[in-house]
Design goal:
20% strand; 11 helices; alpha+beta; 3-stranded mixed sheet; single chain; 8-stranded mixed sheet; 2 domains; BirA Bifunctional Protein, domain 2
Length: 430
């Protein structure tokens, strides 16, 4: 959420920068709500002063010789009128305050100055590439066929459909073991980078989702549980991990905070009907190893670069060709002020596909959560900055390993760094 004081002072600048996200900031509505809020506050203060004056008059009347009951009766009508209007003003102030909060919750984060203009992913700017694209002397298969034809494992969407419908998968045998190995491998890499392993609930309340920016704007993308309590399945570990710092004040000595967390993720994919319907690229349930950093404001840009390099290190260790792109305004997420996407090479599609998004949110999430640190220079609590990214999306990493490591006999080559997690196996299948 944006700082209301900054919005008052820099409204036109925010309006210009938010336009590259495709968002039209309604400054007239903001000004009207802000004026109404101020009017309610001023009138309440005036009424309270009038009430204090009327109450003081009781004492003055008593001092002049009037008895207590007569003095109270003298000002009773005036006090009753003031109290009635005070109650009305309190309701008005509460209503306009909620309207103003709803207005602010709808505004995306303001993009960094170096975020390029553009409408969609086609306008993202490539920053760098790593690895050589594989060359095959045989017809390339996609991960769906490769998984289905493994001799010692299986990838089945039909079995999953019997259980849960479309956009789910069942893995067994060596493929399920490969999936588990990837999780362990990623977690160990990030622990070596100084992250603290973290386990969190997979169900969260609405305040947690509001804190990181999924609610209220993206409710249709969430799976809401039925029951007495309002709970949602997490769309990403970013939500519970970042909210660990909600309503808290960190000491400077405890900064930065770096956490890594493996969870399943659940998304309804409400806006993606017809997209990536084949295979594991876009599913309702998938796994991620998530990286979260909570840092002092002056450290957030460097933290984004560091976190992105940690995600890249996994791709490099797995020998997977990829590229890093800087997202343009039109492709930038609601809460992010700057994002790097890492896109892995998929031979069957002859293109790069997103496998990680690494974002700097500035103080946007922290303001919603009231996540703060005590600045030793000022001695006062100030908002932290939050950074997060996938390190990596496990299912898409599995897809990339299958496709880039495929052999003519149908087996899959296992990268050297991953072999210790699979009992030293150089291949699966075949």
């Amino acid at each position: 959420m944006l700082d209301i004081r900054d919005l008052r002072q820099q409204g036109e600048e925010f309006q210009r920068r938010l336009a590259i996200k495709g968002y039209s900031l309604d400054l007239d509505t903001f000004a009207a709500l802000d004026k109404e809020r101020k009017s309610a506050d001023v009138r309440s203060q005036e009424l309270q002063a009038a009430r204090n004056k009327a109450a003081k008059k009781v004492g003055e009347l008593i001092q002049s010789g009037m008895n207590v009951e007569q003095a109270k009766a003298e000002v009773a009508e005036s006090l009753a009128s003031i109290d009635k209007e005070l109650a009305q003003e309190a309701q008005r102030a509460q209503a306009v305050q909620q309207q103003l909060r709803d207005f602010l919750l709808d505004i995306p984060n303001v993009p960094d100055a170096d975020v390029p203009q553009g409408k969609d992913e086609n306008d993202n700017v490539e920053i760098r590439r790593w690895g050589e694209l594989p060359v095959f002397s045989f017809p390339v298969q996609d991960h769906v066929d490769l998984g289905a034809n493994l001799t010692d494992g299986e990838l089945s969407f039909d079995q999953a459909a019997k259980l849960s419908g479309a956009r789910f998968a069942v893995m067994s045998g060596s493929l399920a073991r490969l999936n588990r190995a990837l999780v362990s491998f990623m977690m160990d890499m990030h622990l070596a980078h100084g992250y603290t392993e973290t386990y969190v609930p997979y169900l969260v309340g609405p305040s947690a989702l509001e804190g990181t920016g999924q609610l209220p704007k993206f409710a249709e993308d969430l799976f809401k549980m039925q029951g007495e309590r309002e709970l949602y399945l997490i769309p990403t570990a970013e939500v519970p991990v970042t909210n660990l710092y909600r309503d808290s004040i960190l000491d400077a000595a405890d900064m930065p905070q770096k956490r890594v967390c493996h969870t399943p993720c659940f998304r309804s994919e409400a806006g993606s009907h017809g997209r990536d319907t084949r295979g594991m690229i876009r599913q309702h349930q998938f796994e991620k190893v998530e990286l979260v950093q909570v840092v002092a404001p002056e450290a957030s840009e460097q933290a984004l670069e560091e976190l992105t390099s940690h995600a890249e290190a996994v791709l490099q260790a797995l020998e997977l060709p990829y590229r890093a792109v800087l997202l343009c305004g039109g492709d930038l997420g609601f809460s992010a002020r700057k994002t790097y996407d890492l896109e892995v090479w998929l031979p069957s599609q002859n293109t790069f596909r997103e496998i990680s998004s690494c974002s700097n949110f500035g103080d946007f999430q922290a303001r919603r959560m009231q996540a703060r640190w005590r600045n030793p220079d000022s001695g006062r609590p100030e908002l932290v900055h939050t950074i997060n990214g996938s390190g990596l999306a496990v299912g898409r990493t599995l897809v990339a390993l299958l496709e880039n490591g495929q052999q003519e006999d149908g087996s899959i080559r296992i990268p050297l760094a991953l072999r210790p997690y699979l009992g030293g196996a150089e291949f699966i299948g075949g």
